[in-house]
Amino acid sequence: MSLPAKRHFRRHPDDDVHCSVAARPGARRPLEFPGIYHARAMLALLLVFLAGAAWAQPASDSPRFRIQVEQDGVYRVAYDRLEAAGLQGPIASDWLAMENLGKRVALRVDDGGDAMFGPGDSLIFIGEHLRGETSHYHDFSPFNVYVLDIVPQATPFRMSEASALSGSAGGVAPSGLRGGVHLEQDLLRIPLSGPPAAYQDETLWYWLQLNNLASAPTGIPVDLSRIDRSGDKAFDLRLQFRGWSDTASAARLPIPDHVVEVALNGTPIATGRWEGRETHLIEISGIPSALVESEGNVIEIRVPARRHGDNLDPVIDVVYLDWLEVAFPRDPVLRHRQDRLVIPADGNTGLLRLRSDSRADAAQVERVELFGEEGFATVMTPTGEASKAFEGSIPDAERRIWVVPDEHFETPSAVLLDRPSNLAASREQRDYFIVAHPDLVASVEPLARFHRQRGTRTELVDVQDIYDEFNHGIKHPQAIRDFLAHARRVREAPAPSMVLLVGDASWFAKRTDDPSGDSARFHQRDLIPSWQLRSRDGPAASDNPFVTLDGDDLYPDMAIGRFPAASPSEASAMVAKTIAYMTSPAPGPWRSRILLASDPTGNFSARNSQLARRARDRGLTATELLAHPSEAGERHQERMRAAIDEGMLVLHFFGHGGRFMWQTAPARGNAGNLFGMEDLDLLTPSDRLPIVLSMSCATGPFDHPAADSLAEKFLRIADRGAVAVLAASARNSPSLGFTNNLLEGILVSGTLGEAVRVAKSARLHPDSALFYNLLGDPALVPARPENGMASDGETAE
After folding, report:
1. Cβ atoms 355, 332 nearer than 8 A
2. pTM, full prediction
3. Does domain 586-796 have CATH number 3.40.50.1460?
């Protein structure tokens, strides 16, 4: 489902009408009216006029800002920060409008009462962290986006002032308040495996792994200082796990696969038991608040050591902790920080009373503001009591209240000016979309210009504009897919047939409190996300779902490729390599040469021999490079490097491999290295670069947050390596039919991307469609043989 185009409205500098109303000293006044009432009347007429005209325009140059938040809380954004991001001068306060995920967000605009938002002013809103569809945290971005528009509006959406509400004389009983704590960190991505397919709401990210080998319980500190411990109060605890081992059930033992013991401050409170690799929720109700210490509370989780049978064999028990949460009766004490409390449906009497901490060393609160999640705000009134108590009216509908003492507001992670775009409204015909990360747009512009000059209708798109128009500013691969589907549906025929993604991917998009700094380093590669699909070994990267646009099958409807560039210099190197290959390929026999590499054992060499015969039948020179187990490993690599330096149309590998290498057959119990990452550095610069077909397991997992893969480096390295690589991101069984179709397509299809698309659409095996990704330009035209040039093939051993 596509979303409407962004709308941007701003008074144009050349417009005839300018107005400034009751501006404070020092504010800019393009034209002044005598008297605030006259000014406001004129402004009202102007707003009516603009409101009628502006919404008829699909886009203009009105400023829009993306405000990013990472956690729940009440946020304040100062005028100065918006001005630094690009806001031009003071504006009417009523023109401020905010949305999140397509829904209006209530604002409180603190403008000093002059109806103008300018220096010294601020706006306040309630923000939430970004949640996934079925998870507490989002898989592709840590940032929730609140969109701030500057638009004329007849009825601004503002927080209501509770001072206008009437409360009863009673007040909420302190015992009726509720609080809660949710603790979760996405630190471990589990290898949830199965038949190739999309994941269906399964959680891949967990906090901790626990097992029966630990010598002591795992302790998790939890802040329970806000629990009302008076009387016989009790609270509830929930913990979510996933079982991982299944040795007990597999061996048909009369014992559960998993046993987890839970304690609070050393006192056992529950034991959970379950079977298999399923999720399991342990719910513990009615825990006495007497078990809670004034500080330093720890929830302890333990997988006990168990034995079974006459031989007392150990039971292997491995589980993952997902999250834990506590729900408790909340005391009415104010802390010197933001806090959220819950009022039961039958507990709202209209007046809330809170008091300061009475401990001698506690910081005293001077001012308290309340913000309701249904859209109200108020300042609590000190009661004058010695304990420094406060009270405030709240509307009946409010259940969740944020308490903000002494202006302890949260600050957004970023305030960014949004550039206008009009992707959804455009109907211009395009053959080719190049979708780039904002930092890489300039680097890839020469490639877009090159294809336009060749006659390919090419549009270079900033991926952030896609997120803005198709997903409310939030990063998600579905937004890119929705944009492509929308373009194929509404753009003038013929429909676009190719897309290039410019930017590396990372499966780690989380933000953690990692003291090592690895988390920040990982995000350097998190530029354009890929899809995570289930494979035999767990999640694997796939760009194929971006282009499965027609029907419900797995097969692509557009050709797609990716430049896995993590920096402008890397993107420029890939662009230069591609343009040089297509504009000035060296003449010579290399354009009819195909190198087929494998080890001589098993059926890999037999498959390569079949491919060689087929290539020779097409008039090509097919050379088989067989790595013999008895040969020194260095000799394998020398022959491979020499062959690549000589140049070829296609370099094809059939065999075992992994992230960093192609492997030879096992010799003396160990597999050898036929060609690896370090060999690429030893290649000679060349203008006879091959297209690499890596028919092997996992030589192209381009989404690792820190490490390169063989396929990526083939493309990434400048002036050598390969001009494009097709490689798998997961373990698979390479298909001879798939390879036959690829080689045929390279010889006859208009572009490399079309050759890959047609080969995948032959529906031979899901692995071929889902896990083989093209790293390179899908619009690349292979440097095919000139004048049918051919020569006899050979086999090199």
Report:
1. yes
2. 0.88
3. yes
